[in-house]
């Protein structure tokens, strides 16, 4: 009787052409659609502003959906690990730039956040030859707080509830900015430590 060939075999690697990666790509495609909807009526508190805000919230919410599907169905891929944070950055970057164009968010806040996001993304690409670097826990918290802060800034609540909502928005945006800078520094510290670690001997 012959032994089963699959007894000690490693599980097959999931294909890059799967549902979680497709959802991530759709999130990237939705970014320019959202951007145009936000700016087309100069950010007025009308239907398009509400539609743009809702589209952003729905698109950013898919981040948790595709991650859950990938983990629960063993569909985690290196491509997904790379595209997922890129999709978040494209969507949040479009929102931040749009809010700054509308003079609803200082440009320096947008620039600080984008420099951090683009810098870390470029670093990830540079490290591709050695390893794929997924988002850290701090990075995921940063993304969550950014999403809440941007959603509050996009929703035209001040027109309905009064100017005090702007203070709430400012608090969340400040927290998002702090987490963005802190986690960016943390990534740089990790990179420095990894570069100092001597390669393992064969």
Automatic annotation (TrEMBL):
Similarity comment: Belongs to the CDP-alcohol phosphatidyltransferase class-I family.
Listed transmembrane segments: 22-40, 47-70, 90-115, 143-161, 167-189
Keywords, sorted A to Z: Lipid biosynthesis, Lipid metabolism, Membrane, Phospholipid biosynthesis, Phospholipid metabolism, Transferase, Transmembrane, Transmembrane helix
Chief location category: membrane
Signal sequence interval, chain numbering: none
Membrane topology listed for this record: Multi-pass membrane protein
Annotated InterPro entries: CDP-alcohol_PTase-I, CDP-OH_P_trans, CDP-OH_PTrfase_TM_dom, CDP_ALCOHOL_P_TRANSF_CS, Phosphatidylglycerol_P_synth
One function term, GO molecular function aspect: CDP-diacylglycerol-glycerol-3-phosphate 3-phosphatidyltransferase activity
Source organism: Herbiconiux daphne
EC number: 2.7.8.5
Pfam families xref list: CDP-OH_P_transf
Localization terms from the record: Membrane
Protein's UniProt name: CDP-diacylglycerol--glycerol-3-phosphate 3-phosphatidyltransferase
């Amino acid at each position: 009787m012959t032994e089963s060939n699959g007894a000690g075999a490693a599980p097959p690697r999931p294909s890059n052409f799967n549902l979680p990666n497709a959802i991530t790509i759709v999130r990237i495609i939705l970014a320019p659609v959202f951007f145009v909807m936000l700016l087309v009526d100069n950010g007025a508190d009308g239907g398009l502003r509400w539609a743009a805000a809702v589209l952003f919230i729905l698109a950013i919410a898919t981040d948790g959906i595709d991650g859950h599907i990938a983990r629960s169905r063993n569909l985690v891929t290196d491509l997904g690990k790379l595209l997922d944070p890129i999709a978040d950055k494209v969507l949040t970057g479009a929102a931040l730039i749009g809010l700054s164009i509308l003079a609803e968010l200082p440009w320096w806040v947008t620039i600080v956040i984008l420099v951090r996001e683009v810098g870390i993304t470029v670093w990830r690409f540079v490290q591709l030859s050695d390893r794929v670097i997924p988002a850290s826990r701090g990075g995921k918290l940063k993304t969550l707080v950014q999403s809440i802060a941007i959603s509050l800034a996009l929703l035209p609540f001040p027109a309905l509830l009064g100017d005090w909502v702007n203070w709430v928005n400012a608090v969340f945006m400040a927290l998002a900015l702090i987490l963005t800078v802190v986690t960016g520094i943390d990534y740089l510290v990790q990179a420095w430590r990894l570069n100092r670690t001597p390669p393992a001997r064969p």
